[in-house]
Amino acid sequence: MTTFRYQALEAHLRQQIESGRYQAGEKLPSVRTLCQLHSLSKATVTHALQSLEAERLIYAVPKSGYFVSESRMHDSTPQKVTTPSMPAPVNVPALFRDIMARSAAFDIFPSDASAPASAHLVTLNRMIAKAARTHPDKKAHYYDEPKGHQGLRQAVAELYRQRETTLSSEDLCITAGCQHALFLALMATCQPGDTVAIESPAFYGALQQLEQLGLRVIEIACDPDTGLDIDELEQKIAQWPIKACLVTPNFHTPTGAQMPAAAMQRLVALAETQDFYIIEDDIYGELGFQKAPCPPLKSLCQQGRVILCGSFSKCLSRDLRIGWIAGGKLQGKIEQLKLITQLASPQAVQQGLTEFIRQGHFKRHVQQFRQQLKSQREQLLAELERLGGERIKFSHPKGGLSCWVELPAHINTQRHYQALREQGIVLTPGVLFSAHGLYQHHLRVSFSQPLTAGRQAALQTLLDTLLAQPA
Predict the structure, then answer these.
(1) From CA 213, how far away is CA 117, in angstroms rounded?
(2) What's the whole-model pTM score?
């Protein structure tokens, strides 16, 4: 299994900070010094430092270097919740449909101004329109091949090559978004009544699919910083065998956690020895706040047990509905299921998107978008700190779009959904993220939109309302 050099330096510095070798407020050695001490390149050292910065263990001061953060930031992280020991069926609250009907899955105040479309998105729409005008008769009378446009599959494979993962166009199948890809993966690996291990808190869209397919779930605690607890997974599946484990190793929603390389390696090894499949939700894989790309779990698997699912909806546009799946040893079965559930993907969209990636527009868009999200994350966390103080805890996302907030244990966030909605404020209660009704005093807050004055006021109203709930 591969451990990257930046990860070794990151682990070394983290250990020195946590052991007290470097105290809060103390300056770390310069990038040049770290390069010399560890015989590493400047890019490798910078990557390690930026990873620690994303965890808020350190912070950068322009023209001065990196300093160890104050301990208050560590204490503000939500606690890992104890999960039930037995599998259970899924029952997603109807509240989920109301949130989606209001287009508010990632926006606390959807009536406010949204971020303006980037010039790259304008270019993408122009390329799709051009593709639609090319041979319209063929597009109107013939379906695309079931696996999807070969050029797009090659482009996606190249994106993964840049993330240290070897895939060919034949390893991939184009889907109608990541949600569709996850559904195909679950259908390919499970039968009704089977048990699937999921992160807890879990992605509510996946819970909805598990409910529809008649599957049982066993929740595995997810640390807000490091993701899925592999020790707990190993203990539970010894008693309750599973067919699949659904996991988001890079920037898990809702916490923004990222699994360390060692945990990813353990998970792949466990799947191989315990005979289950890993369904990897990589929808946020391009949205890490460090400069270097984040390899997916798929990069560590040699036996075809990792089914990789992703899409362009979070990193580019919700409107595309173009995703992909790399099914490993189950690829043939997955392609047959794609024929049943979708038949074919839209040709013009795939062709325009292919050209967009080939000309470098996608890479430039993502680079700018990451910086925008990182800035919006900092604004949100600072506002949570200001408004909630010691009364709340919140995760410090290393990437993705969302933050996980823990309130005092007596608060029920779902109870206030209707009253806040009447004020135009849409909260996403924590109970949506569990099959067992956990996280009643939690909520997800997103930084996918700029923290305008309207959203700032909405966040204050939301927290004031929730924190006023009597014990």
Answers:
(1) 37
(2) 0.83
